[in-house]
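Query structure, 349 tokens:
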């Protein structure tokens, strides 16, 4: 009898083991995979991080293709990094020719269910909506006549000054400038587009709870409020500047300057190609004629051209970072501090 009981106990233990193992296997299978987001440039990562904070660190994986400290122009993304696009649930990129490798990969490797957020498309959609719903605030492109943009040279098209930048894009052509993130009003179009993509993916995966949706609403509203505050700080600080001219390392600041009624003198063109000695001479002439007091250089580019212009004109050298790190708000605050110092005005918080 004791032996029979032992056998029965052994059989029950085996059955329970199998059942518990099966349950564990089902639990493992049901465990959600992290939401995979790939962004092209660092400023976009901060928005993705904030919007997905309710998912926790284990619930989201965010990868940036172009590393911090590298110029956004002409960077060759390694093949190993591009592979992240094949596994991404959401891809966020700027467009307007800034990331041709990303666009080519997405075109060559289409995948059902992958969300693609193109910054420039989000901005253009928001502008179309504004046109339909009412004029609202005058858009930057409409203010181009009020804002005289100066590239630091004349418009002699026989001169080969970065004409991969200018002839193909037009002087001060806001519809082709890829530096969209430098205008807070553009960021206000990007944040809802990213939030919508996150919501659609989570819904398709059956992971969009009422609680997560409410947190997405809250986070989006908080981000947009902070963007508005950033815009107000820039506007109230720069409107006091007696001088409206800024001398910059490359032609990345047309949108920003147009938004805040500044005038730019760019040493290099839109794609930040190395300026020639003729470009530097023309920039020196423009600085002297405008009585600018500061030349702004960039961390991602050689400072030699800017320092040459500053030395020849007696201008001070400060830093203006067109791309910064993965926190857009920190980058914008640092840039405003630098501009306020260069233009001789007190920074408004």
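Result returned for the query:
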């Amino acid at each position: 009898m004791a032996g029979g009981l032992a056998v029965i106990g052994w059989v029950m233990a085996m059955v329970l083991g199998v059942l518990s193992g099966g349950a564990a296997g089902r639990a493992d299978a049901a465990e959600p995979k992290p939401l995979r987001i790939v962004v092209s440039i660092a400023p976009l990562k901060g928005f993705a991080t904030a919007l997905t904070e309710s998912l926790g660190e284990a619930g989201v994986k965010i990868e940036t293709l172009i590393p911090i400290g590298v110029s956004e122009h002409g960077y060759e993304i390694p093949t190993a990094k591009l592979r992240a696009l094949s596994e991404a649930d959401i891809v966020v990129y700027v467009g307007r020719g800034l990331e041709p490798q990303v666009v080519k990969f997405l075109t060559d490797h289409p995948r059902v269910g992958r969300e693609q957020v193109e910054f420039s498309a989000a901005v253009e959609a928001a502008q179309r909506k504004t046109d339909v719903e009412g004029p609202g605030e005058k858009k930057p492109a409409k203010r181009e006549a009020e804002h005289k943009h100066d590239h630091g040279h004349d418009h002699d098209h026989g001169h080969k000054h970065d004409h991969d930048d200018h002839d193909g894009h037009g002087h001060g052509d806001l519809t082709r400038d890829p530096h969209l993130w430098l205008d807070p009003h553009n960021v206000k179009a990007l944040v809802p587009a990213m939030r919508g993509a996150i919501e659609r993916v989570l819904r398709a995966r059956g992971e969009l709870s009422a609680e997560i949706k409410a947190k997405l609403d809250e986070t989006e509203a908080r981000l947009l409020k902070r963007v508005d505050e950033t815009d107000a700080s820039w506007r109230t600080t720069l409107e006091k500047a007696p001088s409206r001219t800024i001398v910059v390392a490359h032609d990345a600041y047309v949108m920003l300057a147009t938004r805040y009624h500044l005038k730019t003198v760019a040493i290099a063109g839109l794609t930040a190609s190395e300026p020639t000695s003729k470009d530097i001479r023309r920039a020196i002439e423009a600085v002297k004629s405008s009585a600018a007091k500061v030349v702004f250089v960039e961390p991602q580019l050689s400072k030699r051209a800017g320092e040459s212009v500053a030395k020849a004109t007696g201008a001070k050298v400060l830093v203006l970072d067109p791309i910064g790190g993965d926190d857009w708000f920190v980058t914008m605050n640092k840039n405003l501090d630098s501009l306020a110092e260069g233009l001789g005005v007190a920074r408004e918080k």
